[in-house]
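Appendix B. Worked example

We walk through a single record from start to finish. Start with the input: the chain for Plasma membrane isoform 1, Theobroma cacao, length 321.
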Amino acid sequence: MWVEIICGLIVYRLFRRFFYDDDVLEVETSDSNAIFSVANRLEKLYGGKVYVGLHIPDADTGSRQNIDMVLVTKGEAAVISVKNLAGFVSISEDGSWACEGVGSHRAERHPDPVAEAKKQASVLESYLEQRGVALPEGYFSYKVVIPNPKFRTIYNTFPSEVITYDQWVQLKPEPKSMFSGWIKGAFRGGKKEMQESFHQQLNFILSTAPMWDRLELKGNKYVLGEFLEFKGKQEDTLALRNIKRSKVSRLIIQKTSMFGLAHSKLQVLYSPRDYRSEGASASEWKEVTVRSSTEVIFQPQNSTKVRKFKLSSITSMSLSA
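Next comes the structure step. The output line below is what the pipeline stores for this chain.
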């Protein structure tokens, strides 16, 4: 019996080694997935453009401020913080949140998310003004979205800036929805040309603002962080030497051929960075073919651990300028 169990474990480990990437199985992507899920739904509900994973310099502290996303539409704009909290949540007198999981006797403390979102909006406004964007007073508002269905409130009435899960699932693309009226008539009566010029400038600045690099993994999983380098056979790393953030904005991974697991190849398509636009046309994409065992060395956001992802587990990677 023990021999059968041991043999079964060996077979399982070999199967997982060849057909799954341990990093994909182990890495915690739920928070990043929640951010991208919220961003996708906002674009579907209200149109416009959502900028995800901004990493904006804060002149007051000399550090950088993480901003989950910024929503920009024709008539409004908002900084949105996503809190993927699960459990029973209450608000303390100082504004901090206490989150206690089901069956847990110890609550996790979180700094006031509304105050954090307000600070993020202030840092973003200062950054945009430094880059020459003349913002109308009160143009940016801020919201905290909680998309986790396991979120529960305890007694407290949450501030109006907070969109709880029950409110989140009921949002509809209507003029009187919870997301309307953010811009306080800043452009009412203004010239249409002026409005369009302003939004073009704003969208360009946000599209070129510092952001976290982004990995999209198989299974619609996301990781935000910093791309460090490629690791693998020398001929493969040499083939990928031109893929640097100064030269490339995005790459896509495609399977090309497989001659046994040890000889599987992947096609890497990458677009040269164009600082005048958001991306390259299809005719500008370049390609290289490398072993699927080649690894991407990546430092996830808010993590001290450097992770390795095999190219075979990656769908695409976006690099910030």
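Two observations about the output. The domain at 31-207 is CATH 3.40.1350 (Trna Endonuclease; Chain: A, domain 1). The longest strand covers residues 221-231.
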